[in-house]
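REQUEST FORM: STRUCTURE PREDICTION
Request ID: SP-0412
Submitted by: Lab K.M.
Chain count: 1
Length (residues): 54
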Amino acid sequence: MGEEPGRAELLLAFALAAAVPVVVGGTPVVSLVGLTVWATAPLRRRGRSRSTDA
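STATUS: Completed
RESULT:
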């Protein structure tokens, strides 16, 4: 039989296994947040210019 994996190998395997769902799930979330901020920027600018005119 083979040797048991060492501590470093186990940590690397767990880190890779944890990184895959974060990257796959995080990309759409960051994209949606960025698109929302970009789409609402004119509304925020318009609201800010009204409050400074008064």
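NOTES: Residues 7-53 form the longest helix (47 residues).
Reviewed by: T.R.
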